[in-house]
Automatic annotation (TrEMBL):
This is LRC72 protein. Gene3D superfamilies: Ribonuclease Inhibitor. The gene is Lrrc72. Pfam families: LRR_9. It comes from the Eukaryota. SUPFAM superfamilies: Outer arm dynein light chain 1.
Length: 248
């Protein structure tokens, strides 16, 4: 039945906190608890969490279900800095009745693996990308099929596909990514947690993913039997050991 809690700033190393099943409406008492990794705030009377949780960068589990949170965009914005957040519950809040609620949360909080007790699937991540950033989705699809796209042109316009056409600018992804499968490209970009071109952090993401990737592989051919040795069975078969090193 608690309606308020005094400041917990003296507990600098507090990591786990259960204050669920109360009547709490204000979270300012958490302003100094930077080390929290698990926070259970479900079944309270929270209507707004703005400015109360953004500093919890180490948080991995956050339960906010069964409250009175109404503004989806405002709530998600407060959680965007939680790069370690993996488990999130927001169901039984008014904001959860938005038709695109789940895809919105998945797109803007890509570190979340378990949302409202359901595992976030790769298909959901792809759908979220197509819904909220169709331009990036088109670029990624084009890369997967070995095409070259100019992001400044309208969707569907291929740069350099016709004679005499020159690319207006360097594509945001290197040509080396043509060799990756479409699913691997999706995994690569969706796992980095940011939306390109919308904020400085997105620009950093794009720069990081455009670095060249070099791969060196070596095999000890002395351990690989020749065709004649295989026929005569003079040498026992050993599985070849392949050493691969990647540099980005």
């Amino acid at each position: 039945g608690l309606r308020s809690i005094p400041s917990l700033s003296e507990f600098h190393r507090l990591r786990y906190l259960w204050i669920n099943n109360n009547k709490i409406q204000d979270l300012t008492f958490l302003i100094k608890n930077y080390c929290l990794t698990e926070l259970y705030l479900d079944n309270n009377e929270l209507t707004d969490i703005s400015g109360a949780l953004k500093h919890l960068c180490s948080l991995q589990i956050l339960f906010l279900h069964n409250n009175e949170l109404k503004k989806l965009g405002k709530t998600v914005k407060e959680l965007k800095g939680m790069i370690s957040l993996q488990t999130l519950n927001l169901f039984q809040n008014p904001l959860a009745y938005d038709p695109d609620y789940r895809l919105y949360v998945i797109y803007f909080l890509p570190s979340v693996q378990l949302l409202d007790r359901k595992v976030v699937t790769q298909r959901e991540r792809e759908s979220a990308l197509h819904l909220y950033n169709p331009k990036m989705a088109w670029v990624m699809q084009s890369i997967a099929f070995g095409k070259r796209v100019d992001t400044d042109t309208s969707l569907g316009t291929m740069v350099g596909s016709s004679r005499g056409t020159q690319p207006a600018r360097r594509p945001i992804m290197p040509s080396v990514l043509k060799w990756f499968g479409s699913v691997q490209v999706m995994d690569l970009l969706c796992s980095f947690c940011r939306v390109p071109f919308e904020d400085p952090e997105g620009a950093v993401l794009v720069r990081a993913t455009t670095r060249s990737l070099m791969e060196f592989s070596s095999v000890d051919w002395n351990k690989v039997a020749t065709c004649q040795e295989r026929r005569l069975k003079n040498k026992a078969e050993e599985p070849p050991e392949k050493l691969t090193v990647q540099f980005r």
